[in-house]
From TrEMBL, chain A:
<dbReference type="InterPro" id="IPR001750">
    <property type="entry name" value="ND/Mrp_TM"/>
</dbReference>
<feature type="transmembrane region" description="Helical">
    <location>
        <begin position="163"/>
        <end position="184"/>
    </location>
</feature>
<dbReference type="GO" id="GO:0005886">
    <property type="term" value="C:plasma membrane"/>
</dbReference>
<feature type="transmembrane region" description="Helical">
    <location>
        <begin position="270"/>
        <end position="292"/>
    </location>
</feature>
<feature type="transmembrane region" description="Helical">
    <location>
        <begin position="69"/>
        <end position="96"/>
    </location>
</feature>
<feature type="transmembrane region" description="Helical">
    <location>
        <begin position="454"/>
        <end position="472"/>
    </location>
</feature>
<feature type="domain" description="NADH:quinone oxidoreductase/Mrp antiporter transmembrane">
    <location>
        <begin position="129"/>
        <end position="418"/>
    </location>
</feature>
<feature type="transmembrane region" description="Helical">
    <location>
        <begin position="405"/>
        <end position="426"/>
    </location>
</feature>
<comment type="similarity">
    <text>Belongs to the CPA3 antiporters (TC 2.A.63) subunit D family.</text>
</comment>
From TrEMBL, chain B:
<keyword id="KW-1133">Transmembrane helix</keyword>
<comment type="similarity">
    <text>Belongs to the CPA3 antiporters (TC 2.A.63) subunit C family.</text>
</comment>
<keyword id="KW-0472">Membrane</keyword>
<feature type="transmembrane region" description="Helical">
    <location>
        <begin position="6"/>
        <end position="21"/>
    </location>
</feature>
<dbReference type="InterPro" id="IPR039428">
    <property type="entry name" value="NUOK/Mnh_C1-like"/>
</dbReference>
<feature type="transmembrane region" description="Helical">
    <location>
        <begin position="75"/>
        <end position="95"/>
    </location>
</feature>
<protein>
    <submittedName>
        <fullName>Multicomponent Na+:H+ antiporter subunit C</fullName>
    </submittedName>
</protein>
<dbReference type="GO" id="GO:0005886">
    <property type="term" value="C:plasma membrane"/>
</dbReference>
<dbReference type="Pfam" id="PF00420">
    <property type="entry name" value="Oxidored_q2"/>
</dbReference>
């Protein structure tokens, strides 16, 4: 179905960002505009999601140029899921940041850049053109550069250097890959590329190009050899910014991989083995990285790297069931990671530190909050009824079926280390007695106004509720993931839908 | 002409990567710039270099009578140049800022926070 509606969420964020420019110094007005804009965009994304589920594929040929020549926008189930997740997380983080950020950061144009970032993410998930994908990636990274460095503390600067360098390098590699791909096929439309790539006789060149894409996306999603920029950058910005980075930015690279390696390239045996090896190394290095860390946010940064390994593992298995697991895990991971970064921000407000050796007695002082955090932690590990459990079971099953025992071992080790680290966070930060007495000066959370507290806690409650919903309603989420996986395994439906749409 | 460009692309990439391995921040930036330019020339080269006319074809023409230049690589390069211009501008400001806050342009002196676990 051809519809202009695909662009609505993207344009909504653009519009909000432009509107914010007119209220540069008025902090309160900016907060209101941002929340309203995010809410409307969320409703639009929900509508887009519903339309995709009922009508199947949505397409839009920009400017009326037919498919291989113009730029195509395209929403299938995978895109719709990603768009909905982005909208959900951006709404939650948007509300959270009205209360958690200090005024000077907002005056530097935080909300303006935030909406640009979300616009870039939405555009990247909806585009059907590989060069357009590159452009959206650039929109996202330039916004993320600014968000990462706003405030200009020394620690932030150090993290930013690595982040900026690695992301610029990734962009150059991605651009090189696009250039070579255009040279061998003469097209940029993802659907059209699929057919043309299959006809190329020099298979070696195709594999090399596909690996260039893998390296480019791999740097952005922090997979094994080039992951180090993530743990040294993600713990430096304020929690609100880290929440949106941790939840969505690395997943954009994963989304691009899922798209490129299901539609454009059909991975051969060599590529799949490479994915498995990279997945194993990512899982192990990420898991080992968490063990000796004391800051909750550093632990989380390494957990992101570790859990990216699950997604790459699913990509390496390359079966429909593995894709179901990947998509399910992606849904779970985006929500839990963003949520946990926000929680770490609240803990920072309560105790002035996120170092677990210096934290303590949170359970005693904030019992309700702690029980909610426990739910999030449980779903992060994957305790049965919660959201992390189902995709992990599927993934383990599929790995076992393919007799890839090394990968299975790595998955299990990573799960155990996650369990260990989470238990450590819980027992150190929540259970044990605080090493030093809690005085009024340390606790910055209690003096907050009621509306400020609600703005901090409500998004966390909301995302926890979504996690619970996913876990308890796994049947429907599973069906959704199954639909997306079916579409990924049958790219010809995608291709036909893009290339045959008439005005 | 093609051969010259091939050599140029190779030189740009290798010099860029070599520069990125240096410890100085300025050289790192230059390395990124060289890589970006290398990628642009690569797209230009690989899109096919022809001595063609501007690709404006009259509606009544039903077949290609002359050699036309492919406009797509040029559009790609133009977009990529604009983007890399913005990124470079940002990176220069960032490096300047890092230099003023840390007082050093040695990348190895930027690892203080990694020691603090």
């Amino acid at each position: 179905m051809t519809t202009n509606f695909i662009l609505a969420p993207v344009l909504m964020h653009l519009f909000t960002a432009i509107l914010l420019l007119f209220f540069w110094q008025k902090v309160f007005v900016q907060k209101v505009i941002s929340i309203v804009g995010n809410s409307i965009a969320f409703i639009l994304c929900l509508r887009l999601f519903e339309m995709t589920l009922t009508n199947g594929y949505l397409t839009l040929q920009l400017g009326g140029w037919q498919a291989p020549f113009g730029i195509t926008f395209m929403a299938d189930t995978l895109s719709a899921i990603m768009v909905l997740l982005t909208a959900l997380v951006s709404l939650a983080v948007g509300i959270y940041s009205t209360s958690s950020l200090n005024i000077s950061r907002i005056k530097f144009g935080y909300f303006f850049i935030f909406h640009f970032l979300v616009m870039g993410l939405l555009g990247a998930f909806l585009t059907g053109d590989i060069f357009n994908l590159y452009v959206w990636f650039e929109v996202v990274i330039i916004s993320s550069f600014i968000l990462l460095t706003v405030g200009g503390k020394k620690m932030q600067m150090e993290g930013a250097i690595k982040y900026v360098t690695m992301n610029m390098l990734a962009s150059v590699i991605f651009l090189t890959a696009i250039g070579i791909l255009y040279g061998i096929t003469g097209t940029l439309n993802i659907a059209d590329l699929a057919g043309k790539v299959a006809q190329v006789e020099n298979k070696g060149l195709v594999t090399v190009t596909s690996l260039l894409f893998f390296v480019g996306f791999g740097i952005k999603s922090a997979v094994f050899p080039l992951y180090f920029w993530l743990p040294s950058a993600y713990h430096t910005p304020p929690s609100a910014i880290a929440a949106i980075f941790g939840g969505l930015l690395t997943k954009m690279g994963i989304y691009a991989m899922l798209r490129v390696f299901t539609v454009v390239f059909q991975p051969d045996h060599f590529t799949l083995t490479l994915f498995s090896v990279i997945a194993i190394l990512t899982l192990i290095t990420g898991a080992l990285g968490t063990i000796n860390k004391r800051s909750i946010r550093r632990i989380l940064s390494y957990l992101i790297v570790c859990h990216i390994g699950y997604l790459i593992a699913g990509l390496g298995l390359n079966t429909e069931l593995a894709f179901v697991a990947v998509i399910f895990y992606l849904i779970h991971d985006v929500i839990v990671k963003s949520n946990f970064f926000m929680i770490s921000g609240i803990i920072l407000k309560m105790r002035e530190t996120v170092d677990i050796t210096r934290l303590g007695s949170l359970l005693k002082d904030y019992p309700k909050f702690s029980f909610m955090v426990a739910l999030v932690l449980f779903s992060l590990i994957g305790i049965p009824p919660l959201s992390g459990f189902w995709p992990k079971v599927l993934l383990f099953q599929e790995t076992f079926k393919q007799e890839n025992y090394v990968l299975l071992a790595a998955l299990i080790v990573a799960s155990f280390v996650t369990l260990f680290v989470v238990i450590r966070i819980w027992s150190e930060a929540f259970w044990k007695e605080s090493p030093k007495p809690i005085t009024e000066e340390i606790d910055h959370f209690r003096p907050f106004s009621l509306s400020g507290k609600i703005a901090l806690i409500a998004p966390v409650i909301g995302l926890t509720a979504v996690s619970l919903f996913i876990g308890l309603n796994a049947n429907n989420v599973f069906k959704l993931a199954e639909k997306a996986a079916y579409e990924m395994k049958h790219p010809e439906i995608y291709i036909n839908n893009v290339l045959s749409t008439k005005e | 002409m093609e051969l010259l460009l091939v050599i140029l692309v190779g030189a740009f990439y290798s010099a860029g990567i070599y520069m990125m391995f240096r410890r100085s921040m300025v050289k790192l930036l230059l390395g990124l710039l060289l890589l970006g330019n290398g990628a642009n020339i690569l797209i230009f080269l690989i899109g096919g270099i022809t001595k063609g006319k501007a690709p404006i074809i009259k509606p009544q023409n039903t077949e290609f009578l002359e050699v036309y230049a492919d406009p797509v690589p040029q559009a790609l390069i133009l977009t990529a140049i604009v983007i890399s211009f913005a990124l470079t501008a940002f990176a220069i400001v960032l490096l300047k800022r890092v230099y003023t806050t840390t007082g050093s342009d040695d990348l190895d002196s930027l690892n203080i926070q990694d020691l603090d676990i």
